[in-house]
Amino acid sequence: MTQNASGGGSSPESTAGGGAGSALQGGDALLQVRGLRMHYPVRGGVLGGRIGSIRAVDGVSFSLRKGETLGLVGESGCGKSTLARALTRLETPTAGRVLFEGKDIASASGAELFRLRREIQMIFQDPYSSLNPRMTVGEIIREPLAVHRLGTKEEQLGKVRDLLETVGLGADMVGRYPHEFSGGQRQRIGVARALALDPKLVIADEPVSALDVSVQSQVLNLMVRLQRERGLTYVFITHDLSVVEHVSDTVAIMYLGRIVEQGPVDQIFRSPAHPYTRALLEAIPVPDPRQRKDEAPVKGETPSPVSPPPGCPFHPRCHHAIAECRSTVPELEVMETSGADPAHAHTAACIRRHEI
Amino acid sequence: MPLLEIENLEVGFDTEAGFLHAVDGVSLEIQEGKTLGLVGESGCGKSVTASSILRLVPDPPGKIMGGSIRFAGMDILAMPREELPKIRGKDVAMIFQDPMTSLNPVFTIGKQLGEVLRLRFGMDRKAARARSVEMLATVGIPDPEDRIRSYPHELSGGMKQRVMIGMALLCKPKLLIADEPTTALDVTIQAQILHLIRELQRETGASVLFITHDMGVIAQMCDDVAVMYAGRVVEQGTVADIFERSLHPYTRGLLASVLRRGARRKADLPTIEGVVPSLFDPPDGCRFADRCWKRKGLPPGEQKRCYDEDPVLRPFRGGRVACHFPVDGIENGAGT
Q1: Residue A324 lies in a domain
Q2: In whole angstroms, what is the distance from residue A254 CA to residue B215 CA?
Q3: Suppose B8 and one of A50, A155, B67, B139 were both cysteines; which one would form an S-S bond, judging by CB atoms 3.0 to 4.6 Å apart?
């Protein structure tokens, strides 16, 4: 594999047997996603037959090591939330594998799926609509424990109190209702509920996007502390690159259902290879009036996933596009590796990645 | 003379939970051709202040209870209601976070743009249409000849916001009020919209009141900044003063909690402890006192002043601040 060839030979994994399979299984990856696709039918015509498909997620692969955070970045419609739903098996993928500790969530069923779901929990963006308004905070956090029949009711209530303390709300809040809390406090309730089953992996879909900046930093501090204390692994989905830079170990940038660049957070932010990643970084308004920019930003909008452009999906908006970009679909290629661990390779899907 | 001058504005709402004093003595001014940023967190009263300028606060339950708003010499709060259309959408245009607030879902884009031109400039249908197509192209809408026949729901959020801005530009307003116009948009689209607003300003010399919670947008767009907290302006100054030498402990706290490129990963971020006080029953003294890192470091006698005595917005070192003990030097309360 290219990764092994150009990667540092000092790493023990790189010498252990050649095949792609063994390299991908190597290290301590908690989650390995392989060729994940999520296609939805588009119906039309007089008979309402299938006339096409929306490729919401179109061949996504990545690895995530235990205790680390993958920042998944992209703008509306890039497929990042659909990907989250596939990872938690809220929806069944059209194709591909989602290996959690080597077991495939994408094809699991029955008792095995029920057990796997305990290990993977989700935190949602909107703390206003993701909590049942008619349940007390105690009931909301206890619900997953009751569903999975973990412990006696007394043990469950004790756990709920511990969790409320852990997220900084206080055990005496147990009988209150969601509407009695501010946005930031509600997101703490969401975090407590996600942790009730002691999951190994937490998928957080825009967890701080609806919060004011001073509250946002409180919730980020909480999530970082919980990761440190409990060895949690996060997939952190957001459109906000500043948040991603702060919380992530590795980053994947999505555009129209595909990952266009991924790698260690420092490499992505210091030497972005894909023109889309660069456009995203340049578009962040810098909070410093001495660093004003006024050049014309990237043009146009994300095309519809129903009729994606041929070739590179970003070419119609790309300043660097050449004729070949309109016909060749670029694959993720290794830019530079950080050892042989595929979870930490820097890859980009751009045919001009070395010249621009 | 400033183009817009707001003095001691008081706005309240009758709600089921009681009387909410949303804006409590706000004073602001915007000079011709300048951009004033109005920044603050949810519920601080920044949007209500902005809506008051065109008397768009819904009454009831809302009520503008006092103060004055002077625009180009006119006293807006004293104007008879039937005269308001003379300034709305003409000398003063407003764009909102949700463009559907001002786009009518039952008319095509072309009809809505054309109406502005016919009413404002007395253009005939054909000329108005040509000018509308031209404007759609200016704001970056592809195939404007086709798009002019679209209804608002057929456009993406970014496209609708462009149409809104196009409509605002057609009016050639003296003042553009932009209330979180890019908050719901993707970052690449936000960059395009901000660029567009800057170009409008360069071409027409319009003043802009830019309302946002995003310090990055403030730094990129504004000449002057007013920081609001719990229904009041707590600090006002030039953008350089606010970012480099802010005087109010709240402003410093807000700036400290902004994520910056290249900061240490996963390190504890500075936060502002506590919550905003209720505007149903605001405290007597400084509204920020309970959360204030600066107050915590003062001797008890001086702390008492923070709790007892309401600080007024007063001139201080070239800016204005509502704090008994303005911040000096580089302290920012980070980590406390």
Answers
A1: no
A2: 26
A3: B67
Is any Cβ of chain B less than 8 angstroms from the Cβ of A56?
no
Strand ranges inside A66-218, DSSP E: 69-73, 95-100, 103-104, 120-123, 201-205
- Report residue B131 CA to chain centroid gap: 29
B191, B218, B265 ranked by CB distance to A283: nearest: B191
Whether A220 contacts B269, CB under 8 Å: yes
Q: Does residue B36 belong to the interface with chain A, where contact is any CB pair within 8 Å?
A: no
The amino acid at residue B114 is G
Tell me the ipTM for this assembly.
0.86
Tokens 């660029």 appear where?
Answer: B195
Grade residue A141 by pLDDT with cuts at 50, 70 and 90.
very high
Residue A156 in any domain: the answer is yes
Q: How far, in Å, CA of B333 to CA of B336, rounded?
A: 6
In this complex, the residue of B186, B219, B253 whose CB is nearest that of residue A287 is B219
Q: Is B184 exposed, middle or buried (0-12, 13-18, 19+ CB in 10 A)?
A: middle
Burial class (CB in 10 A: 0-12, 13-18, 19+), A46: exposed
Quote the tokens at residue A228.
């440190």
Mean pLDDT of A200-217: 90
Chain A segment 241-300 residues within 8 A of B by beta carbon are 241-243, 245-248, 265, 269, 279-280, 282-294, 296-300
Cα-Cα-Cα-Cα dihedral of A228, A231, A232, A233, to 10°? 100
What ranges do the domains of chain B cover? 98-172
Residue A291: closest C-alpha in chain B = B220
Contacts of B159 in chain A (CB under 8 A): 301
Does B332 score more than 70 pLDDT?
no
Chain B residue nearest residue A278, CA to CA: B188
A86's tokens: 């596939």
CA distance A218 to chain B (A): 6
* B269: nearest CA partner in chain A: A217
> Which of A42-46, A82-86, A198-202 comes out lowest in average pLDDT?
A42-46
Q: Which three-class secondary structure state does DSSP give residue B59?
A: coil
Cβ <8 Å between B260 and A242? yes
Residue A182 is part of a domain; what is its CATH number? 3.40.50.300
Cα A118–chain centre separation: 18
Q: Can you give the C-alpha Rg of chain A in angstroms?
A: 21
pTM passes above 0.90: no
Residue A155 lies in a domain: yes
